[in-house]
Amino acid sequence: MDEEYDVIVLGTGLKECILSGLLSVDGLKVLHMDRNDYYGGESSSLNLTQLWKRFRGSDTPEENLGAIREYNVDMIPKFIMANGLLVQTLIHTDVTKYLNFKAVDGSFVYNKGKIYKVPATDVEALKSPLMGLFEKRRARKFFIYVQDYDEKDPKSHEGLDLSKVTAREIISKYGLEDDTIDFIGHALALHNDDGYLDQPAIDFVKRIKLYAESLARFQGGSPYIYPLYGLGELPQAFARLSAVYGGTYMLNKPECKVEFDGSGKAIGVTSAGETAKCKKVVCDPSYLSDKVKKVGKVTRAVCIMSHPIPDTNDAHSVQIILPQKQLGRKSDMYLFCCSYAHNVAPKGKYIAFVSTEAETDNPEEELKPGIELLGPIDEIFYHSYDTYVPTNKQEEDNCFISGTYDATTHFESTVVDVLEMYTKITGKTLDLSVDLSAASATAEN
Question: What's the predicted TM-score (pTM) here?
Answer without folding.
Answer: 0.90
